[in-house]
Amino acid sequence: MSGHSKWSKVKHQKESTDAVKGKIFTKLSNSIIVAVKQGGGNSDPNLNFKLRLAIDNARSHNMPKDNIERAIERGKGSSAEDSLSEVMYEAYASNGIGLIILAATNKKQRTVANIKNILEKEGGVLAASGSVSHLFDYFGNIKILKGDKSFDEILEIALNSGAEDIKDHENVIDIFTKPNFLHKVRETAINNGLQVLSSELLYYPKISVPLIDKETALKITKLVSRIEDNEDVFKVYSNFMIPDNLLVEYTEKTQA
After folding, report:
1. Number of domains forming the structure of the chain
2. Domain ranges, residue 7
């Protein structure tokens, strides 16, 4: 799964660039607003775990405290501007690559029209609900800095606290949990001296499809990037994997 992991890292680097422009802050704010609303207006991150995840994600992108607090207040509001809801779209890119697109919007017709337009221009198509999501598992994911702990030590801590799986990616360990075990496993990791880099709920592909053709790989990554650039979209999950040599080329193109 190295290609899949490194693709995620490239996307995170791109998000950091977007953060300088301020665009990513809007997406982070929207995820906080939605978390508060989904929690029934509960703005306490100790009682609303999805809100805690959204806040942790915002902090990992160096989002100012004032911005976070304003987003929480907006989540408790009732104006039309603040009536954001989370929507999930399923789509296919070329080569049968599946996409799950999460967005926060107060105008669903506008959002779906924009996403459909991007897909059609880049060789993708919007799919019926359930036609793509069955290709993914819904997991809690915790990224741990390996540090001075061995893989076996981290494995024991993770499995004893209820983790489902663990993957080794050089200096970072990916721990996967059932969604309702994410909080427990995360807290256990912290209490055992492990450094948590991030924690989130995500859709992880059951089987990753390698893109060995350069033209196809660049075409699909361009599609995903265009969807992610849409102001309403805050997350895109896919089931493709890019070989390291093509990933280097993609990185060079996006940083040029």
Report:
1. 3
2. 2-76
